[in-house]
Specification:
Elements: H1 3-8, E1 19-23, E2 56-58, E3 70-71, E4 82-87, E5 92-93, E6 97-101, E7 106-111, E8 114-118, E9 123-129, E10 137-141, E11 152-157, E12 162-172, E13 177-178, E14 183-184, E15 189-200, E16 206-209, H2 213-219, H3 224-233, H4 241-251
Parallel strand pairs: 1-8, 3-15
Antiparallel strand pairs: 1-2, 4-5, 4-9, 6-7, 7-8, 9-10, 10-11, 11-12, 12-15, 13-14, 15-16
Amino acid sequence: MDGLNLFASFSFTHSDRMRIKLLSLATIIFSVTSANAQFNHTATTGDMRNFASQTSIVFERNPFSKKGNVVGSQFLFKDWASGMVTNKEGISFTDGLFNYDKINKNLYIFKNDTIFLVNKFQLQTIRLRDMTDSAVRYVLEKIPSLKTDDLYIVVSKGTKYSLLKEVTTKFIVANYQTNGIASSGNMYDEFKDEYKYFILFPDGSSHPVSLKKKSVKAVLEGEKEKVDGFYKANGEAEQNENFLSRLITSLNQ
């Protein structure tokens, strides 16, 4: 897919002004720096030097700002975040600011007053961190046993098992209706997130799982004794994402 075709498939929800250029990771020239230390990553890192192909398009000045009565966001962060991007060759860079579009599954880099759209087919790992709250951070990875073009949020990663999350964001237009007696729907537009979970096994296979006890036990049948022990010890805890993440961590110990 060339740069022009990749841009043709891209659209923001709003429509102010900002230059956007397509960035091809495979053709970036890097110089070694120590910037990767903040993420404990061993790949070579460096600055963007030149681009094999680039195209420009005009979009909004602040793509993350909400306009009107809108709940949620199509982006992972409310503003630009710090981060590290690694391509399939294991080469990384940290120079610039980042944000991830959950609807179009695209990564954007802000550098030198320009927004760059990364060629997602060359991505392997994205590491992002909120600059105002270091506790808010995400790692997204491509998983060979899942969709090859999508990146999955790594909730918990270990030597044996890992917990992955796929986020799907849908834009729902305000649909409020009333007949004067009864009413239904919402008076606001909404970006609604939906999640699917997967457990990555030691052999690299991925298994869909829900947060329900029955589903978890079925997927982890081979670890029955440990799983039963964890549920017995944590029976009063809410069975949410954090609960499943702690279970996966316990299986890796």
